[in-house]
Amino acid sequence: MPTLVRKTLGEYRRALIGWTVGLCAFLGMYISIYASMMKDPDTFTKQAIAKYPGALRDLMGGLSDIATGTGYLQAIAYQLLGPLLFTMCAVILGNRALAGPEEAKTLELTLTLPLDRRRLLLERWTALALGLLGVALVTLVVAAGASSAAGMGVPFGRILAAHTGLFLLVLFFGTLVLCVGAAFGRKQVALAVAGVWGVAGYIVETMGRSVDALSWLRWLTPVHYYLDGRPLYQGWPYGDYLVLLGATAVLLMTALLAFERRDVGV
Amino acid sequence: MTAVVETEGLTKFYGTRRGLEDLTLDIRPGEVFGYLGPNGAGKTTTIRLLLDVIRPTSGRATVFGASTRDPRVRARIGYLPGELALEGGERARDYLRFLAGVRGGVSRGRIDDLAERLDADLSVRMGRLSKGNKQKVGLIQAFMHEPELLILDEPTSGLDPLVQQEFLAMVREARTAGRTILMSSHVLAEVEHVADRVGIVRAGRLVAVEDIAALRERAVRHVELHFDAPVPREDFEGLPGVRDVTVQGASLRCTIDGRPDALVKAAARHTVVHLVSAEPDLEEIFLTYYSEEEARHAHAGA
């Protein structure tokens, strides 16, 4: 493994362990509640769900089938909270790749090593991607294990498809933050861009699908390509995932070009 | 002999603010070059341009004959940043090993030798290093791979006097080994004992480049002579380079510019019992440059 990838993973280690533990606890706990709720079927009757405001139901992905294993897993793990938490992890780590060290002025010495900037950025990004992949793999095992223990009856292949989407989504946001950090060297700017694009994107994708004036905007949000294919119900949405991957690649190229020509630390 | 560092019309503006303007400078192989100027004069800007951390607005800079863009050049440079930041839970020794690894390896024991010389504790986590210890770690990483060119930005800041002496010894050894050194400072006293030449930069412009030896020769010296009998004042008046003569009985005080030859020859006609000559004060000349420059700016502005 290249030295800088290893070194960066070393810097990420604590955060990676923390986020993995946190995400696993979240998934394990909420998924295991499913079994006890099924014992009391009144919790999620159609009438009970109908009491929620429509907008809230839209925001939570509809909730119409929350009494089924697939519906519950989608609502709890893959609709909002799972992606939100994992994206936060990716954004924090993405900021620690370039913008954080630049603001802390530790990047200067790294830049004066006999590495070209392109390699520096690529190795930092590789460490970010590997770190996120590690978190994704562990959480996949926990999500699949817990849902089979709770008797949800969701096939592993579907969970794998949904989890792959989750990984691609957080990789996109991690790369986005790294890219903005590479271009501007400011953590706050990167955070703002990712926050606005992520939150606005989610709202447009969930509530905007019924609003004509907004619906075209869905094509511009990464959340669309994560949610729209409904992998937990329909399996692999290859096209959508390729769009996410392609967008990540474009961001990475942009980051390389922007970082290459910039004054660092001024 | 080709210059180790060569700049031509090197200019850097941060937006409309001038960082450095039209710097043309050669640093020769094997010399210690003192780069002097007050804070904010453009020293750090120059250094960061040489290391390709920032990019020039115009002009060009080469190191070892190659563009500063070439990353291979940086393997031959040891760099100490002016604002050295070290943080995190990593131990200083592990960080140094990482830097050494990327630079192509450092001989075993070299890091420990340097740590011992500078009295640095490398088992401390970097976020907990004191300012002085951070500076020591910075110096170790700059010297450890025995680079052909050392670029040190304010190297003595934060070091106690004993460590400063050790650092100056390291600089002298590096020069003896044929290495080239560029070190910046805002006080001449810090570099005058090791530097061969000094460049003075002010408000983004290089105002003067001087040989330390020549500077010393031009330096103002205060001399006191004591004779066995009172001497006539006229014997010492009008001597070339001798000023401010005051005679009080058998003792004489004066200021000399440059060589003391005329004064010594005049004094030799009497019996000298005691002679005191203060170390030339280079700081004074240095400040003269500043005030001249300032006067000119004030004039231009008026």
From TrEMBL, chain A:
The keyword Chloroplast does not apply. The chain crosses the membrane at residues 16-37, 125-147, 159-182, 189-208, 241-259. Keywords: Membrane, Transmembrane, Transmembrane helix. It comes from the Bacteria. GO terms for cellular component: plasma membrane. GO terms for molecular function: ABC-type transporter activity. This is ABC transporter permease.
UniProtKB/TrEMBL annotation, chain B:
It is a peripheral membrane protein. This is ABC transporter ATP-binding protein. PROSITE patterns: ABC_TRANSPORTER_1, ABC_TRANSPORTER_2. GO terms for biological process: response to antibiotic. The lineage of its organism: Bacteria, Bacillati, Actinomycetota, Actinomycetes, Streptosporangiales. It is found in: Cell membrane. PANTHER family: ABC TRANSPORTER ATP-BINDING PROTEIN (PTHR42711), ABC TRANSPORTER ATP-BINDING PROTEIN NATA (PTHR42711:SF5). Keywords: Antibiotic resistance, ATP-binding, Nucleotide-binding, Transport. Its main location: membrane.
